[in-house]
Design brief:
Blueprint: H1 3-11, E1 16-19, H2 27-35, H3 43-62, E2 67-74, E3 77-84, E4 89-94, H4 97-107, E5 112-122, E6 128-136, E7 144-148, E8 151-152, H5 156-165, E9 173-182, H6 183-192, E10 198-206, E11 208-209, E12 215-216, H7 222-227
Parallel strand pairs: 1-10, 4-5, 4-7, 7-9, 8-9, 9-10
Antiparallel strand pairs: 2-3, 5-6, 11-12
Helix pairs in contact: 2-3, 3-4
Length: about 230
């Protein structure tokens, strides 16, 4: 196949990316507080900002979902309104994803829920593999799936967790949600996850990823900031 047609094929099959920090809104205030090392000293404030950002993501995602005309009975009459066809399934990667999950769930209050226990298993050289211990998930067949993880560094955790959820059915559409992403992680996901039925939602993109796969400037370890430091295994 000629290079020109290969290029066109690539351009039109790249996963759609929605970037929230490109427009001015109060979302930027919440993002700045997440990154601010002084405000981070208050874990409750950090968790609350994760929840509020989750609500904003959920509102934006709701605009992309399917609706149909239905009749609502009021005390004085009837009103035809466009209402959602289905409730999504909200999935989160433990433990950092819990406050973000709570924010999304507070908006999609009838959603199904899925949880994945995944973590970095480091060796003596500092390298790591993604290990999974547990998955809890409802039927996903032809459902709208929202998979949340606050930080998208290398993208490997998100890709592995997404593939694990496919054991529970093939979603009709998947929304991948991360608050801060490294450019390298976005590129990796676009190679690993089908683009025809997935949308990637990002709060902000940071260009640098350290040798230890931490995002710079990033915000630090979201799980530790939300729930306290853990012992490394």
């Amino acid at each position: 196949m000629p290079f020109f047609f290969l290029l066109l094929r690539y351009l039109f099959t790249v996963m759609e990316i929605k970037l929230l920090d490109k427009r001015n809104s109060w979302f930027l205030r919440f993002m700045s507080e997440l990154r601010d090392r002084d405000i981070q000293r208050d874990p409750m404030r950090f968790r609350e900002n994760l929840r509020r950002i989750g609500q904003i993501f959920a509102y934006e995602i709701s605009k992309e979902m399917e609706y149909q005309l239905q009749t609502v009975q009021t005390p004085l009459g009837e009103k035809a309104m466009n209402l959602p066809v289905e409730d999504p399934v909200v999935a989160s990667i433990l433990r950092a994803g819990l406050p973000l999950h709570e924010g999304v769930l507070s908006f999609f209050d009838r959603a199904g829920n899925a949880f994945i226990s995944a973590y970095r298993k480091h060796d003596e050289t500092g390298a790591f593999q993604i290990k999974m211990d547990y998955v809890s998930c409802p039927d996903l067949e032809n459902r709208t799936l929202i998979l949340c993880d606050p930080m998208l560094a290398t993208g490997s955790s998100m890709a592995i967790c997404y593939r694990s959820l496919l054991d529970y059915g093939t979603p009709g559409h998947t929304h991948l949600v991360s608050i801060i992403a490294a450019a390298e992680g976005i590129e990796y996901l676009q190679k690993q996850i089908p683009s025809d039925n997935c949308t990637l939602w990002i709060g902000s993109v940071d260009e640098e990823l350290t040798a230890q796969s931490y995002i710079v400037p990033g915000l630090g370890d979201a799980g530790d900031l939300a729930f306290g430091c853990k012992l490394q295994n």
